[in-house]
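Before a colleague's protein record goes any further, I have to sign it off. What it holds is a sequence and that sequence's fold in token form. Would you go through it and say whether the fold makes sense for this chain? The record follows directly below this note.
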Amino acid sequence: MKTKFFLLGVILFCGFAVGSTRSAFADNIKNIAAFGDSITYGYGVGEDNSYAKMFADERGRGLINYAVNGLDSAGLLALLRDAEQERIEAVKTAEEVILYIGANDILSIISGEAAGLEDGNTDADEINGFVKRLKSEEMRGRFRQAVSGFENNFGEILSILKGYNENITVLTLYNPYDGIIADNPILGINRFNLGVTAEEWIEKMNAVIIEKCAANGITPVDIFSAFGAYDGGEKIAEAYVDMTTMSFDFDPHPTLKGQELIFETLKKACVIDPPAPPPDGSNLWVLFIIIPAAVLTAATVTFFYLKKRKLRSTPLKKR
């Protein structure tokens, strides 16, 4: 009976050593945590085709994507203030945190005013009314208020994230309406460049991002310039205006090509580490020292224990 208990103890000891090794190897699995809106989530192309997933795959890392469709800076700040423990732990342990936020603070105003223009029954009066509203002082006041609110929210968002993780990568906002022009004098539609109107306020948002990032020692990745400089043949944003057919789409989300452009810009701005094959070298001591030592110790103890029992059980010869 004692022998059985002893051998069980040896087995448990070896199991503990192997379990410690697995735990050490599991600790080497590194993740990237992403926060943002539908662009980071991958709306329209699928989460697996989002720039965040492409970036994580390029690094050989896992992705924890906390992006939420329709989220603005106020919404993200509320989530971080009332963060679940899981979300906080993800930020703390992430190798890097990616942040893209603020587009909905501005673009939701434009898309709200454009509601109804995409139903296929749009006429010149509706389009001119939309243009007039965007140019009004009331609308400019709403844009100014959105920028001011974003300035307060974004500073606190960075402060919270930096409190848990020093490796924060921030992306500037791109202009999804670049080149979108309404112009049809025959139908009485006055020329209006939606891209220019949007860009004025997106640039102000990006100025806030740059200023707040500088105060936190962060250099943001310039997605705005990457989209502005793109001259490829494929669409990079879903929005379009066709004045011939009077069809419109004010969807600001990037196409798959747009997601790839964000990823490529992010990749160029960040040093991409090659995927680390498990186990990580930092824990090879567990593999080459702890396990052999445990097995050798167990074998030695077992040998002497059994030898001792054999000697005890061998009867003495009478002389």
